TrEMBL record:
Residue ranges annotated for the Class II aldolase/adducin N-terminal domain, each copy included: 10-189
UniProt keyword terms in alphabetical order: Lyase, Metal-binding
InterPro entries xrefs: Aldolase_class_II_sugar_metab, Aldolase_II/adducin_N, Aldolase_II/adducin_N_sf
A GO biological-process term: pentose catabolic process
Matches recorded under PANTHER family: 3-OXO-TETRONATE 4-PHOSPHATE DECARBOXYLASE-RELATED, FUCULOSE PHOSPHATE ALDOLASE
Cellular component per GO, a single term: cytosol
Tree of life domain: Bacteria
Pfam families: Aldolase_II
Name the UniProt record assigns to this protein: L-fuculose-phosphate aldolase
An example Gene Ontology molecular-function term: metal ion binding
Length: 237
């Protein structure tokens, strides 16, 4: 493994632990994948361990575009097609994540549009896609391709009664998209539970917010915050 890939996988491991810390934990489920820079396939978190237990490069397996192991040890997730099919459909995606955060998974069961009632929803750059082909595992290339189609050009997609998938051009951007979607869903669910009327960000103001998170300095600033928060928490695993 060359030094560049090793560095990326260390950050990917940290991304897994940040997701755990921020409410994306679900037993040993949930995974991040990183596009191999040499075009061989995807480096995917190994199965059988929690997001919080991912410590470094040894916890990732390199798969080719057909899901065959090229490098690394450990079990392979049945949902590897999430990563391969999205990355084949979206050349701009370098990192892809899938998790089951509580509020976003609940929101996926509703026939309600996610509205920009908070900055987090605006930071997504647009509404999440909706995937409804199955509520089960995305364990075939056909289902992975369907998920990629539902994602489209968006940064996130809600998977009916299942969870979410989120993407980015870097570890930081991908993880932030997952965190923001969960917070945006939590905010709207809270408002809906009051049965009171509420307002979304006016379209004229939304235009100024859309895409802000894609600004590299802001991504770096937010990601550094989560890194500091994680380091201070010193999770004991």
């Amino acid at each position: 493994m060359n030094e560049s890939i090793e560095t990326e996988l260390h950050e990917l491991a940290q991304g897994c632990r940040v997701l755990h810390m921020e409410g994306h934990a679900d037993l040993t489920r949930g995974h991040l994948g990183y596009r191999d820079p040499a075009g061989r396939g995807v480096w995917l978190k190994r199965s059988g361990i929690a997001l919080a237990e991912v410590r470094g490069p040894a916890d990732f397996v390199l798969l080719d575009w057909k899901g065959q192991r090229l490098s690394g040890e450990g079990r392979i997730y049945k949902e590897w097609p999430i990563h391969t099919e999205i990355m084949k459909a979206r050349p701009d995606v370098r990192v892809c994540g899938h998790s089951h955060p509580f509020h976003a998974t609940l929101f996926s069961a509703l026939d309600v549009s996610l509205e920009p009632v908070t900055n987090e929803a605006a930071y997504l750059g647009g509404p999440p896609g909706r995937f409804e082909m199955t509520t089960g595992l995305i364990d075939t290339p056909a289902l992975g391709a369907g998920l990629a189609e539902a994602l489209g050009a968006a940064s996130t997609v809600l998977m009916r009664n299942h969870g979410i998938t989120f993407v980015g051009g870097s570890v930081a951007q991908c993880v932030l998209m997952g965190l923001f979607l969960e917070r945006a869903c939590c905010s709207q669910l809270t408002l809906l539970s009051t049965s009171l009327p509420y307002h979304s960000t006016p379209r004229a103001e939304l235009e100024a917010k859309l895409g802000q998170i894609l600004d590299a300095p802001l991504v770096a600033n937010f990601w550094a915050f989560y890194q500091r928060r994680f380091n201070a928490a010193d999770l004991a695993w």
